[in-house]
Amino acid sequence: MKKVFALILIMAFLGLSGCGSNPEKAKGDQGEAKSEAKMQLVEEGKLTFAMSGLYKPLNYKQDGKLVGFDVEIGTEIAKRLGLEANPVTNPWETILQGLKGKKYDAIIGSMSITEERAQQVDFTIPYYIEGAQIFVAEGNQDIKTPEDLKGRTIGVIQSSVWKSLAEGYSDKIKSYPSDVYALQDLPSGRLEAVITDSIVGAYAIKENNLKLKPVGSILNKDEVAVAVNKDNPELTKKISEAIQAMVEDGTYEQISTKWFGYNTLKE
């Protein structure tokens, strides 16, 4: 009987020893599982991020594939998070609704930080700084300053920060799904001015050989960041960390210089 009891004690001891043979590994496994659970993704192993696909050179389609500055930034972020990049498109006017409806994990599509948007979603640290610019037809001599926009017909992108800016000058606002479409309406006279990002406007004029010109200096400066759902703070944090690391190791400047010729985070 004593031998049987002793054998039971030995077996129990061995069992306990086996359970705790590698406490650090067990702790690490639990930590990894906890971290994965915090970073919510619509598709496991992928960072799915949205954009309009109509905002050249920031995000657009070339030979059926999404390319541009935003796409390259999003791809680098995904790589640093150990995920596969999965860029997708969504109409700009419903892009926030798509994010809140969990169609994608983030918006990496040149979205400026505004108080109204910040009430609906969280933003990472900025990944570039943009400025609003007035563009008019090359022969236009009537609009030389922002004050000359009073009562004029102004074109802007739908649901953009440019729309509220334009409304401060005129009540004749026409919304477009793309900057290029708005700019193309300037030479014909359907619009008298367009307010858009200075980078996008200059690029569109060059690419489409449009007879347009910028008016005055930059109207304002906006910080552009990645938008993430408010119930996904871990993903917001990790994306911010990835952007910061890109800035610090020089990767960000390489990407920015490739697309624009300068570092868009340096004012």
Mean pLDDT: 87
Q: H/E order of the elements?
A: HHEEEEHEHEHEEHEHEHEEHH
Query: How far is the N terminus from the C terminus?
Result: 84 Å
The number of helices is 10
The percent of residues in helical segments reads 40-55%
Percent of residues in β-strands: 25-35%
- Count of separate structural domains: 2
Corresponding CATH architecture of the largest domain: 3-Layer(aba) Sandwich
The CATH superfamily of the largest domain bears the name Periplasmic binding protein-like II
Largest sheet, strands/sense/barrel: 9 strands, mixed
Secondary-structure class: alpha/beta
Query: C-alpha Rg, in Å?
Result: 26 Å
Shape: globular
How many β-strands, per DSSP?
12
What is the CATH C level class of the largest domain, in words?
Answer: Alpha Beta
The CATH topology of the largest domain, please?
D-Maltodextrin-Binding Protein, domain 2
pLDDT < 50 stretches: 1-36
Topology:
Blueprint: H1 2-19, H2 23-38, E1 46-51, E2 54-55, E3 59-62, E4 65-67, H3 69-80, E5 84-89, H4 95-100, E6 106-112, H5 115-118, E7 122-137, E8 153-157, H6 161-167, E9 172-176, H7 179-184, E10 193-197, H8 198-208, E11 212-215, E12 221-228, H9 233-249, H10 251-260
Parallel strand pairs: 1-5, 1-6, 8-9, 8-10
Antiparallel strand pairs: 2-3, 3-4, 6-12, 7-10, 7-11, 7-12
Helix pairs in contact: 3-9
Main location: other
Pfam families: SBP_bac_3
InterPro entries: Iontro_rcpt_C, SBP_3_CS, Solute-binding_3/MltF_N
